[in-house]
Specification:
The complex is a heterodimer.
Chain A lengths: L5 E2 L2 E5 L4 E6 L4 E9 L5 E8 L4 E4 L2 E6 L4 E6 L8 E9 L8 E3 L3 E6 L1
Parallel strand pairs in A: 2-11
Antiparallel strand pairs in A: 1-3, 3-8, 4-5, 4-9, 6-7, 7-8, 9-10, 9-11
Chain B lengths: L4 E3 L2 E4 L5 E6 L6 E8 L3 E9 L2 E5 L6 E5 L5 E5 L8 E8 L9 E2 L3 E5 L1
Classes of the chains: A mainly beta, B mainly beta.
């Protein structure tokens, strides 16, 4: 079963605008990761944020993590048509859950209009 | 450095048959995980192997099995195929002793059961 939900399920914006996606999860985590998937292909790792971090940047990406609310957000600034893809959050659960596997959210389909 | 390679890319099988999918991880990575992706259930964890041992298993029936070889290459097998097994099967490898780092995904094997 999936760890949580992503919001929104779909997002359509114009090139140059910012895109924000949210992810909620249920259990204690070791880290949270964001991935991108282009139309039925493999997933590409974007960024990893550890449970003791609150914010992380990578290029045009900004990720925040609020462990008290069990939520994370991914912000893509100055979006481009090439950013069109599905975005997934994935949680790596804490050691005491005994689970060593990524649990994925349901994903957000981002469409960037040129 | 070569990425994760999955073979074959596409496969069409008949109900009741069995299938074997292959995954070659990034050189030096010892953790290999398998995921099933369907439109209805999203990305679901199948199992993870580390140094030829299954470390974790998802909630799939016993028809789904896997193994890992000494060179870290992994195979997954699905016996007595059902229509609902039609999916994109993704393999991911990760490095480090704990495997708690980013996962690198292959392009997937698209399995269609008719």
């Amino acid at each position: 079963s999936q760890q949580g939900e992503e919001d929104p399920q779909a997002l359509s914006i114009q090139e140059g605008e910012n895109a924000t996606m949210n992810c909620s999860y249920k259990t204690s985590i070791n880290n949270l990761q964001w991935y991108r998937q282009n139309s039925g292909r493999g997933l590409v790792h974007l960024i990893l944020i550890r449970s003791n971090e609150r914010e992380k940047h990578s290029g045009r990406l900004r990720v925040t993590l609020d462990t008290s609310k069990k939520s994370s957000s991914l912000l893509i600034t100055a979006s481009r048509a090439a950013d069109t893809a599905s975005y997934f959050c994935a949680t790596d659960e804490a050691w005491d859950t005994g689970r060593r596997a990524l649990t994925f959210g349901s994903g957000t389909r981002l469409q960037v209009q040129p | 450095k070569a990425g994760v390679t999955q073979t074959p890319r596409y496969l069409i099988k008949t109900r009741g048959q069995q299938v074997t999918l292959s995954c070659s991880p990034i050189s030096g990575h010892r953790s290999v995980s398998w995921y099933q992706q369907t439109p209805g259930q999203g990305l679901q964890f199948l199992f993870e192997y580390f140094s030829e041992t299954q470390r974790n298993k998802g909630n799939f029936p016993g028809r789904f099995s896997g193994r890992q070889f000494s060179n870290s290459r992994s195979e997954m097998n699905v016996s007595t195929l059902e229509l609902g097994d039609s999916a994109l099967y993704l393999c991911a490898s990760s490095g480090g002793l704990t495997g708690r780092t980013e996962a690198f995904f292959g392009q997937g094997t698209r399995l269609t059961v008719v």
